[in-house]
Design a protein that fits this description.
With 240 residues, this protein is mostly helical. 56% of the residues lie in helices and 12% in strands.
Length: 240
């Protein structure tokens, strides 16, 4: 296992002073149970979760100086959910190095979001104990900046209409309005075309088999266009 952990440290671009911490970080409880080992990575996961909250809170606070607390909280939550941490884990091939029990291996545990997310938090906790917050922050932010160059976009994944609503209220002091432009196709297979606008400025339009889906797609497209600066005529509210 030593050579594997040496390889992982190269991927991580961090060399542990205390390799026992890294061993503990990749020790899944199933492996520990099967091999009668009296420790696993759950304690480091607990610590790593708190370290990630500190890092992400500071990141969101500095990146979005004009955002209200509620919106910053939602962005942080989106960056800290299970799938987001699992994505960061996959970027460093963490699944290859997690020590799993036979049952977990057979059930694909090395690629399960929950397992990867927990192990990622454990590794973060291990780095923090092995060095300091600054080193941990540098490693974590290197991954985050690559994976999520526009963290606000994460809000549109599950609730694009809600994300657009909050963004428009935050920046423009108004709510977007959705208009059904047309309903085409057969009665049993309709196609709804929906437009979303803010005041008189058209943000985007989309078509789908259900009105709500079309509205969500239009909201998602509107967010993308706004963030890319491709919509003219929008006037931000006075922040003085």
């Amino acid at each position: 296992m030593k050579s594997d952990l040496t390889k992982f440290q190269r991927i991580l671009n961090y060399t542990f002073n205390d390799l026992k911490l890294l061993t503990e970080a990749v020790m899944h409880r199933s492996f520990a149970s099967e091999n009668n080992i009296n420790f696993d990575n759950q304690r480091l996961e607990f610590l790593g979760d708190s370290v990630m909250q500190i890092i992400l809170t500071e990141f969101v606070f500095r990146k979005y100086p004009d955002y209200a607390e509620g919106l910053m909280t939602k962005i942080r939550s989106a960056m800290a959910d299970q799938s987001s941490f699992a994505r960061l884990a996959r970027m460093i091939s963490l699944g290859e190095f997690i020590m799993l029990g036979k049952g977990e291996i057979e059930n694909g545990g090395a690629n399960r979001d929950s397992t990867l997310s927990d192990a990622f938090e454990s590794v973060v906790g291990a780095i923090f104990l092995d060095s300091n917050l600054e080193n941990t922050r540098q490693i974590v932010m290197g991954l985050i900046n690559e994976a999520y160059p526009d963290p606000v976009a994460l809000l549109s994944t599950n609730n694009p209409k809600g994300a657009l609503q909050e963004y428009c209220q935050q920046h423009f002091g108004k709510s977007p309005r959705y208009t059904t432009l047309s309903v085409t196709g057969e009665d049993h297979d309709p196609v709804f075309t929906v437009q979303v606008e803010l005041d008189s400025v058209v943000l985007a339009a989309a078509s789908a088999g259900k009105r709500k889906i079309a509205e969500g797609q239009a909201a998602n497209e509107a967010l993308s266009l706004i963030h890319a600066g491709k919509i003219e005529g929008l006037q931000e509210k006075n922040r003085s």
